[in-house]
Design brief:
The chain has helices spanning 3-8, 11-16, 21-64, 74-77, 80-102, 108-138, 150-174, 180-217, 226-250. The chain is mainly α. α3 packs antiparallel against α5 (80-102). It starts with a helix and ends in a 20-residue tail after the last helix. The protein binds protoporphyrin IX containing FE (2 copies).
Amino acid sequence: MNSESESLLSEHELDNNLPSGNNRRIMEAQSEHQRTKMYNTLYSFTTSLGTGLLLLVLFWILHCRGGFTWQSNPKTQFNWHPFLMLLGMVFLYSQAMLVYRTGRMLQKKKLKIIHAALHLLAFIMSVIGLKAVFDSHNLSKEPIANLYTIHSWLGLLTVIIFSMQFLSGFISFLYPGLSPTLRKTLMPIHVIIGTSAFVMGLISSLTGLTEKVIWTLNGSYSSFPPEAFLFNAIGLIITLYGLLVLYLVNEPLYKRATIPEDELALTGSE
Ligand code: HEM
Ligand code: HEM
């Protein structure tokens, strides 16, 4: 406890070491401050790691895979797929989930709009990423079969669950919005489905990466060329980033506390 807060305690409280009203409020404010500081430090580290991941994927595509094109060259059109899926289904998805904790001082109504807008952006990036991979199969000189791998099944299922979650979240919590009792009942389901689909997105990314490294390096993977090192590093960073996000979004200590401004919002606080 610092000297400033100590001076706010009455002598009686200090002598008897009792957590009276004043004392308790100060202790609560201090522990909220500590928790916010801890969250912000971990969040900054995690987000830097996520940004590093996207930069590394860009480097891999530009340096080793011929860059980006659209339908003029299906081979390089494919390259949009890993980049946009990681940007949408991993990075923007996780930033959207964490927004309530990161912007804890903002009014709940504003956070809901940012949460929904970031998820919508994640969805748009993913749809363009899927269009890129389907085109790269269908427009190839010798068309490649669609949807035969576990990666493609799991990936498509992830995007379908994500879309349903978006619609149900929008209708339940934003517009038109269900009754407060229903919103309260639905919230734990919303959180479980939202975090589970994120885990599915991580697994999809790792399976996609594995397929790509095996097909691209075509037998030379075991001799461990520099590109294989890059692939493995990307896979490890995806895993570490995902685990950190899951910790930050699940840890009850970091959950946003209601602020007085929330009560003024018309659609309630849940
Ligand atoms: C959450 C992230 C991802 C999702 C939801 C996803 C989804 C999909 C889907 C639905 C397909 C099927 C396309 C078709 O059949 O024409 C596909 C194909 C493919 N994806 Fe991904 N993907 C993701 C991330 C990645 C990543 C990071 C890579 C890494 C390079 C990757 C590599 C591939 C490859 C090589 C194919 C073609 C072979 C196949 O159909 O399995 N994907 N992806
Ligand atoms: C696919 C889209 C979505 C996913 C994956 C998702 C996921 C999540 C997750 C994981 C949380 C827990 C956050 C925390 O504990 O700090 C959450 C909370 C919440 N979400 Fe969503 N969500 C989605 C869409 C939406 C939409 C469209 C709305 C409409 C506004 C919405 C409204 C809320 C609300 C009100 C909370 C409660 C936050 C709190 O009480 O602190 N969600 N969401």
